[in-house]
Design brief:
single chain; mainly beta; twelve-stranded antiparallel β-sheet; five-stranded mixed β-sheet; globular
Length: 236
């Protein structure tokens, strides 16, 4: 007799484990592109894939967008679906907000969610959460995307205060006050990717400009954003 027939509890545990693994995999980040400013070297935006969704986290506005990264072409003969909006009959405060785009449902926090009211709650199966009043100066910022925590440096981190510290498992660091002129305060490391800048030992005309970006991989790469942060990867 099969061990699964003899012990039906094993079947349930196995199914639950498989489901957990599938759900965990679907929420993992991939093809993460940090786009840094060519002028200030600040992180302008982060474009990434989670599950089957292509999203962009705008650092300037602190908002999340669904985008088309271009690597998945939609056949010209495929069906077309315009954006759908919530109405005022049964949707209350969601009236006028986008309900779905490209067949992907978008939900929002409502009046029962306090300060989160009106903010995006989920895009497809990807849930989004925000820092609340108990989180100090991080209040209102996006806290997690699909379970991937977005961390920020706090008051105990000196000059790094308020800057993004981590994106999921990707750690981010900055040159400190002891760094040479031209590097101070600028992003130095994103995951395994290292960013270097011209300093007072280089050409004066290049002072503070990006000198090199090393360590890029297909799943995590840093590129220079020359003002087209909302465009797809095809326009890099």
């Amino acid at each position: 007799m099969s061990v699964y027939l003899k012990y039906p509890r094993n079947i349930i545990l196995t199914v639950l484990f498989v489901c957990f693994c599938l759900c965990s995999e679907a929420q993992e980040l991939s093809k993460v592109n940090f786009r840094i400013s060519s002028q200030t070297a600040a992180i302008n935006s982060i474009v990434f894939t989670i599950g089957e969704l292509n999203l962009q986290f705008d650092q300037k506005g602190g908002k999340l967008y669904m985008i088309n990264r271009g690597y998945k072409r939609v056949p010209e003969w495929s069906d077309y679906m315009d954006e759908e909006y919530y109405d005022g009959i049964t949707d209350g405060d969601k009236k006028g907000k986008i309900k779905s785009t490209g067949g992907v449902k978008i939900d929002y926090y409502d009046v029962f969610d306090g300060e989160k009211k009106g903010k995006i709650k989920s895009i497809g199966a990807v849930k989004i959460d925000y820092y609340d009043v108990f989180d100090g100066e991080k209040k209102g910022r996006i806290k997690s995307v699909g379970g991937n925590i977005i961390g920020y440096y706090d008051v105990f981190d000196g000059d790094k205060k308020g800057k993004i510290k981590s994106f999921g498992s990707i750690r981010i660091d900055y040159y400190d006050s002891f760094s040479s002129t031209g590097k101070k305060g600028k992003v130095s490391v994103i995951g395994q990717v290292k960013i270097d800048y011209y300093d007072n030992f280089g050409p004066s005309a290049r002072m503070g400009k990006i000198k090199s970006i090393k360590g890029n991989t297909p799943d995590l790469y840093v590129t220079i954003d020359r003002g087209n942060s909302t465009l797809s990867d095809d326009n890099d």
